[in-house]
Amino acid sequence: QGQLVESGGDLVQPGGSLRLSCEASGFTFSDYSMGWKRQAPGKGLEWVSWIDSGSTELFYADSVEGRFTISRDNAKNTLYLQMNSLNPEDTAMYYCAAADSYLDYLRSEYIFRGQGTQVTVSS
Fold this sequence. Notes:
By secondary structure, the chain is mainly beta. Helices cover 4% and strands 48% of the residues.
């Protein structure tokens, strides 16, 4: 059974940086596109960034464009999200998910989804 495990969430001051990781197991990681979504307290699920299986297509939400960088290492079965210039509005639980396509990812039609890692941006 496939599994995704996120890590790297932490408490960070505004303007700081974090790198999230999402380690995959139990399925062929390189077969699927991957994405990050987040959910802040009392708010709905927000898509953050998506990358295709071969790292040739990447998309970012306007709210993170220019500050966040998504990447993947298929040899290590790991997805990353480098987050710079963090602000309090980035505070949320961050989830990674595997999907067949960008459209499926946007529709939350995942193959697998992790349990999340908490990012808190506060002084």
